[in-house]
């Protein structure tokens, strides 16, 4: 590891030299942590590539899409992700914008409501849903529709915080008043002024909820719905390689989504940093 | 006149919250109330405390003990290791690659719970796992180590606890201004004195808060343990799932609600503690 010593920062360099032993300890911690975090992922890759008699090939991956039920459940999970994102945005973008504009005194209250799902563990929520909506319309409670509706609730703590932060960083009142004074309707202002200015936050909120939905197992499993994670666990009871490949796929999609968010976030931050 | 107008407007403004409030009331409020009320009802709908007393007796009391032990242990180890990693990173130059990698990795890994995590560990140290085979080739047999027991669950839970700790504690660590340390050393304080009298007391509230957040996080977790052990280990969420799928004596259908109420209380108290500590921290953090 090359130690980058910044000569302009003389006092800093001095402290760092004094911390020679500390630096070794720091690297040791980081290397051990890196091993702990990388080995299971590497092992997953290796496991999903295992062929017969200690060989490695791509057969598990090429057969994955042919596994009975895999494609159906993959489609269900993708539809759930899309549905959750749409409901979340339709519900939360107008609500958070409205709170910022007209009810700023209620921001704390709305925030408290939005973090409530953290207090109710998913298992408990599933238990309540099962009992409370037993006699609900079956096209909702008997289908994954109920999952999308509940996933919106599960994602609230993250989606609210993301949208709230986005709204705090733009001159919302000025923008909306300008639009209204020029004769635009509320809907026009929302769609053509608020939404474009909130692009990054909306994208982040969508990515966070989609990533959560794609990996969600608890509620889907307990409400006896078939989604990709549920299918994966069932497959795991017969064929570990297939289940590992499927879970790697879930992981890969989730990580690509989250990495995209991180990249967009940094670009946004850099842009605001430059203009500010 | 103007007064009634503005009051009317306020009322209209509140109307804008109606869709949101209605949604949360139906899809969060109704299930939660159903759990809380159900905890005190028998199968016929009459009021009773028998669910609560059943939930507070064996085998369910044991589940609460095991859940608490695993959550506390993974919270403490996760917090200490997470703090060590955050310290190691904060010593690196700001804006460097290491910071970038650790912060992105923590953000992503803190989400890595549930099904994929369980299979990753089975692939690593399960009976057919990669590490198990390597160590076996070296003459070290770890097949006695069960991923499905207490130690196994602890090892797996740390995988999402440590990154969460890094995410939560890093801002506090970065918020300790170098000027404070400089001021302390100009006044003749040693490094140890600085940490004992300035840095430590400042970091204590966010550290305790993070401990409680990690505890709640592990206590509420179900998917990882369920996928890993197929429901063998007696954790509270696993027991609730067992009750839900009908593995329970007649007349105890509402037992799951009583267990759920217990979980809500424990997780709620832990998160309230976290929120309290966070408010204290926000007084000096930026």
Would you write up a description of this structure?
Chain B: Its main location: membrane. Chain B: One of its GO terms (biological process) is transmembrane transport. Chain B: The chain crosses the membrane at residues 12-40, 60-89, 101-125, 145-173, 194-215, 221-243, 255-277. Chain B: This is Putative spermidine/putrescine transport system permease protein. The complex is a heterodimer of chains A (276) and B (286). Chain A is mainly alpha-helical and 276 residues long. Chain A folds into two domains: 10-48; 68-275, MetI-like fold, CATH 1.10.3720.10. Chain A has 14 helices and no strands. Chain B has 286 residues and is mainly α. Chain B has one domain: MetI-like (MetI-like fold, Orthogonal Bundle). Chain B contains 13 helices and no strands. Chain B has helices at 2-15, 18-38, 50-55, 60-90, 97-109, 115-125, 130-137, 150-175, 178-186, 191-220, 223-229, 236-244, 255-282. Chain B is globular and about 75 Å long. The model of chain B has no long low-confidence stretch (mean pLDDT 87). The interface between A and B is large, with 84 and 81 residues.
Give the structure's gist in a few sentences:
Chain A: It is found in: Cell inner membrane; Cell membrane. The complex is a heterodimer of chains A (276) and B (286). With 276 residues, chain A is mostly helical.
Which fold name fills CATH's third level, the topology of the largest domain in chain A? MetI-like fold
Shape of chain B: globular
* Rg of chain A, Å, rounded: 24 Å
Number of domains of chain A: 2
Number of domains of chain B: 1
Mean pLDDT of chain B: 87
The fourth-level CATH homologous superfamily of the largest domain in chain A is: MetI-like
> So what's the oligomer here?
heterodimer
Strand fraction of chain A: under 5%
Range of helix content of chain B: over 70%
**What overall form of chain A do the CA principal axes indicate?**
globular
Q: Tell me the CATH architecture of chain B.
A: Orthogonal Bundle
Structural class of chain B: mainly alpha
Relative helix content of chain A? over 70%
Q: Quick one: which chains have the greatest interface?
A: A-B, 84 and 81 residues
Largest sheet of chain B: none
The CATH architecture designation of the largest domain in chain A is Orthogonal Bundle
Q: Count all strands of chain B and give the number.
A: 0
Which percent band covers the strand fraction of chain B? under 5%
